[in-house]
Amino acid sequence: MTLGKLEKIENLKPIWPHEARSFTPWLARPENISQLSEAIGYGPEGLEVLKVEDNVGAFYADIVARDTLAAEGGLVLIENQFGATNHDHLGKIITYAAGQKEPVRTIVWIAEKLRDEHRAALDWLNGNTAGTIGFFGIEIELWRIGESPPAPRFSVVSRPNEWVRDHAADPDLSDLRKLYIRYWDALGTLIRRRKTLLKPQKGTPAQWTNFSIGRANFALVATAAGKNGAIRAELAMTGATGKLAFARLVSQQAEIDAAYGPGLEWDHMPGRQQTRISETLPDVDIWNVSDWPRQHGWLADRLDRLHRLFHDRIRALDLTEQGQADDQP
C-alpha cells in the first residue's frame, strides 16, 4: 500500500481570504462548529450557534453560541483571529463577555498561533476564576495529503483546569460518589464500543450523566439513584421554553409511543421548570458491579432509542412566540 504524506498548509488566506467575512461564516456552519465542539470536548453536537458578528457596543463578537448540555445559560463566546494572538484581542474577549446579557460560561480564542504570554494569560484566568468560566486557546491549522482538499484541525493549546481534573483521585469524595465515577465511565465505554451517535462525557461523581442531543435546553440524561434502586433514561427539557417544548411533543405522543415501544413516561413535572420523557428500570443495585453489564446495556439501548427518535424532532420544534401564537385557535 502506498501512503500519502500529511503536509501543513502555511497560508490560510487562499482558503479564507478574510477572517470576518470568510472564516467566521465558515466556522458558524453546523458541520464546522461541530469540529470545534469536538476539539474542546463538548461532542459533535455540543455547540449551537446563536449569533454571528454580534454587536457589543462599538465592537462585534465573532460568534455567540450555547453549550447544548447546559441546563441554564451556558453561553460560549468564540473570537477568531488570523496570525498570532495579540493584546488587543485578549482585551476584546473580556469586553465581549462582559457585554452579553446572559453570563458567559466559556470563551474560545482561535488564532493561527497562540503566543506563549497569551497562553500563560489564559492559564492564569483558568486558575483564578473559581471554575465559573473556562478559557480555551485554540490554534487553527490546514492540512492536506497530496492534492486532496485541505482539512482544518483545531489544536487545543490552553484549556480550563476542570477539563483535565481526575475526580477519582479526590480524597474528599464519598464512596458513593467514587462509585458514580466508575459507573458512568463504564457506561461510556460500552456506548463508545457500540459506535452510536451518543457521545459520553468523562465520568463524574453525580447520580446523573448528560448526553447532547443537538439543541440548547435539551439533553439526554441517564440517572442512577441509589436510594430507590432504579435507573432512568430520559429526554430532559429545561429553560423558559421547556414546558412549551413538552406541549409540542405531546401533540406527537401517539406516533412517538408507537415508534419507541412500551415504557415511555410523559412527565409535565408541575411546579418545576423542567419536563421529561423517560423510561425507568426498577429494582436495580448500582453497588452490584457484576450486574453492571445488564444495567449499562439497558441504559445504552434506551438512550440510543431516545436519540434516534427525538433528535430530528427537537431540532425542528418551533419554540418562538410566533410558533406559540400559531397554536392558538
Topology:
Blueprint: E1 6-9, H1 19-28, H2 30-39, E2 47-56, E3 59-67, E4 75-84, H3 87-98, E5 104-113, H4 116-127, E6 134-145, E7 151-158, H5 175-194, E8 208-211, E9 218-225, E10 230-237, H6 242-250, H7 253-260, E11 265-267, E12 275-281, H8 292-316, H9 321-326
Parallel strand pairs: 4-5, 5-6
Antiparallel strand pairs: 1-6, 2-3, 3-4, 6-7, 8-9, 9-10, 10-12, 11-12
Helix pairs in contact: 5-8
Structure description:
Helices cover 34% and strands 28% of the residues. The chain folds into 2 domains: 8-163, 3-Layer(aba) Sandwich (Trna Endonuclease, Chain: A, domain 1); 167-321, Yope Regulator, Chain: A, CATH 3.30.1460. Strands 1, 2, 3, 4, 5, 6 and 7 form a 7-stranded mixed beta sheet that branches. The chain is built from 9 helices and 12 strands. Helix 5 (175-194) packs across helix 8 (292-316).
Keywords:
329 residues, alpha+beta, Trna Endonuclease, Chain: A, domain 1, Yope Regulator, Chain: A, 2 domains, seven-stranded mixed beta sheet, five-stranded antiparallel beta sheet, 9 helices, 34% helix, globular, disordered C terminus
Average predicted local confidence, pLDDT: 85
Cα radius of gyration in angstroms: 22 Å
Give the N-terminus to C-terminus distance in angstroms.
67 Å
* Helix content percent band: 25-40%
* SSE pattern, N- to C-terminal: EHHEEEHEHEEHEEEHHEEHH
- Residue fraction in strands: 25-35%
> How many domains comprise the coordinates?
2
Q: Tell me, briefly, the overall form.
A: globular
Could you tell me the CATH topology label of the largest domain: Trna Endonuclease, Chain: A, domain 1
The number of helices is: 9
Main beta-sheet strand count, sense and barrel state: 7 strands, mixed
Secondary structure category: alpha+beta
CATH architectural arrangement of the largest domain? 3-Layer(aba) Sandwich
Tell me the name of the CATH class of the largest domain: Alpha Beta
Low-confidence stretches: 164-169, 325-329
